Amino acid sequence: MNIAAIQPTTIEEFLQLPETKPASEFIHGQIIQKPMSQGEHSQLQIELCETINQITKPQKIAKAFPELRCVFGGLAIVPDIAVFRWERIPRLPSGRIANRFEIHPDWFMEILSLDQKYKQVLAKLLHCAEYGTELGWLLDAEDESILVVDRDRRVKELKNSDRLPVLTEVELEGV
Fold first, then answer.
1. Which residues fall within 8 angstroms of residue 110, CB to CB, at 6 or more apart?
2. Model pTM?
3. Tens digits of per-residue pLDDT, 110-151?
4. Using an 8 Å Cβ cutoff, are 82 and 100 in contact?
5. Contact at 8 Å (CB) between 112 and 139?
């Protein structure tokens, strides 16, 4: 089925459609399929998730999720990495993690793919900040830079030995 040929008018209609690989997002009434991850992108995504989870999960500070659909503010987006503070992770009455995350992540990370446009990806980070995300990273492996978006929607480019901001209570220094 060609998911792009179906244009739902609401986010609820979009969420009823079958999942795609790679994932599709619903942004301002449009279905946009994410690009297929390539080697460097996948490796960076895995390493970041593993590193964050090794530090935050044992102490129940936060948890990093790869490719997790987040539905909030009229959009359904799938960040490369969504980090949620432990107490904000949606759970079922049994205590298990819920399948639907209808809240913004605390930390949102996108790794720029070759066929993605900065403006589109940055717009997702700004949307997240508008709805309460504390920190956003847009990683560009090709030029070895990271655009950082804070909760006030300020954007700053970091390179080389610049110290990267992380969520409060998370210590990645020396990792």
1. 79, 80, 121, 124, 125, 136, 137, 138, 139
2. 0.91
3. 999 888 888 999 999 999 999 999 999 999 988 889 999 999
4. no
5. yes
Structural tokens at position 133: 């995300």
- The CA angle 104-110-116, to the nearest 5 degrees, is 125
The confidence score (pLDDT) of residue 87 equals 97
Asked if residues 145 and 79 have their Cβ atoms less than 8 Å apart, the reply is no
Measured from the Cβ of residue 125, the count of other Cβ atoms closer than 10 Å reads 24
114: closest CA among 28, 168, 38?
Answer: 38
Q: Which CATH number fits domain 36-159: 3.90.1570.10, 3.30.710.10, 3.40.50.2300, 3.20.20.370?
A: 3.90.1570.10
Q: What is the largest CA-CA distance in the chain?
A: 48
Q: Reduced to 3 states, what is the DSSP secondary structure of residue 71?
A: strand
Is the distance from CB of 164 to CB of 158 less than 8 angstroms?
yes
pLDDT along the chain (175 residues), means of 10: 61 93 93 88 94 94 97 97 98 96 97 89 96 96 92 93 87 62
